[in-house]
Amino acid sequence: MTHREDVTSAALTQWALLDDPDFLREIVQGALQRVLDGEMTAQLGASPHERTEGRQGYRCGSYTRMLTTRVGRIELQVPRDREGRFQTQLFMRYQRSEKAFVLALLEMYVQGVSTRKVAAITEELCGMEVSKSMVSSLTVGLDAEVAIWRNRALQARYPYVFVDATWLRARTDGRVRNDAALMAVGVRESGHREVLGVILADSESEASWNAMFRDLRDRGVNEVGLVISDDHRGLVNALGRHFHGAGWQRCQVHLMRNLIAKTSKRRLGQTVALLKDVFAAPDRAEANRRLAAMVAEVAGWDRELAVWLETAVPDSLTVYDWPTGHHRNIRSTNMLERHHSELKRRTRVVRIFPNRNAALRLISALLMETDEEWTTGRRYLNPDLWLKQNQEAKQTEAKRAG
After folding, report:
1. Angle CA(311)–CA(258)–CA(340) in degrees, nearest 5?
2. Which of 94, 60, 92 is nearest to 77 (CA)?
3. 323 in helix, strand or coil?
């Protein structure tokens, strides 16, 4: 009997996924409707028809709200309460990025740089002819919200900060240029990630990284434990200027890429294996021993590469000064690069932004969504390991003093 039920269930699932085009839309619609009803229950402190002493009000019907999603347009029934105090937070995160995306398309259309395809998209999204006044009214509210987020106060200390840049194309003074979007993501002492900031610059230069770190300091960051980034002299110089005493971890993945570019094809496999062995060392002392052996071996066939390894690799071993349980997460900028890939996926549709403001608006709206997910979601790292490391350091210092 159970086997027959399983077979029937599997057949129905296959039919729904392959033959019913409305299947995913119905799932999303049902899930979002449950969220709306749950928000109302939480605000009133009671389920429908439930009698409780702590009830904060009463339901009063609902109104229809259409929402355009990635699986099509869905219809939701938004509940009302008698006092009119209920306001759902369901649409807020969705609206920011979608408004920014639509605005970018609208600006392309109004400024005469769109194609017929973009015009068709904007008409489909807006349901009416696009005008400058429409763009202006949509921009005011979203830009104000984005500005508040970008200028918000930050915590005083972040044990880890990841920094990196990604590139996008925007029109400036009538020309299409590549702009660098510099981003910083911090890990709080609670172990949660937080998007600290984003700025647009002409290039990834020392001046632009100075602007980024200055912005973080102006918004309250006083201390940074370790910065993880690619090798960029301007970035390192700016870090030393604004956060003196912070450690620097050179991204091991970027370093491996640099090594591959510098190594001959005949020796590539051997050299990569040696560097992987260095990175796999259990502690810094062993990593230094393996690095010395690697440099000596590589010098036998490429003296210039050996000199580069001797100077470059130690910057990627700073990770050993921090809790072992964190090494996997802080030895590279992979976490931030994965997020860059998601940003690229979302911004690729626009291709060329009509101006820098449109680019910054969309990126900021997307980062706001990510920031809310990270700061309210699960921890990225175990904060107890910092406490354990500090206790062990104090015990070691006490033994030396004794």
Report:
1. 120
2. 60
3. coil
Which two structure tokens, joined as six digits, stand for 97? 């990025």
The stretches of 1-89 forming alpha helices (DSSP H) are 2-19, 23-44
pTM: 0.72
Look-up of token digits 């639509």: 102
User: Quick one: pLDDT at residue 1?
Assistant: 47
CA atoms within 13 A on the CB side of 167: 7
Burial (CB < 10 A; 0-12, 13-18, 19+), residue 67, is middle
Q: What is the CA radius of gyration of the chain?
A: 27
> 3-state class of 246 per DSSP?
coil
Would you say 109 and 123 are in contact if contact means Cβ atoms under 8 Å apart?
A: no
Res 14: pLDDT:
45
Tokens found for residue 289: 């021993």
What is d(CA 307, CA 255) in angstroms, rounded to the nearest whole number?
14
Structure tokens, 129: 């002819």
At residue 396 the predicted structure's pLDDT band, cuts being 50, 70 and 90, is low
Instruction: Name the residue with tokens 């009830």.
Output: 55
For position 340, what pLDDT does the model report?
A: 87
Question: From its phi and psi, is residue 201 left (phi > 0), alpha (psi between -120 and 50) or beta?
Answer: beta
3-state secondary structure (DSSP) of residue 310: helix
- Look up tokens 């062995």; give the residue: 277
Give the DSSP H/E element, type plus range, for residue 73.
strand 72-81
In the chain, what is the straight-line distance between the N-terminal and C-terminal CA atoms, in Å? 74
**Amino acid identity at 100:** A
State the angle between helix axes of 206-218 and 233-242 in degrees (0 to 180), rounded to the nearest 10.
30
| Averaged pLDDT for residues 56-77 | 78
Q: How far apart are CA 202 and CA 102, in angstroms?
A: 25
Q: Where are the domains of the chain?
A: 21-88, 157-354
Q: Which residues pair with 37 in a beta bridge?
A: none
Q: What is the pLDDT of residue 16?
A: 43
- Token representation of residue 211: 């602007």
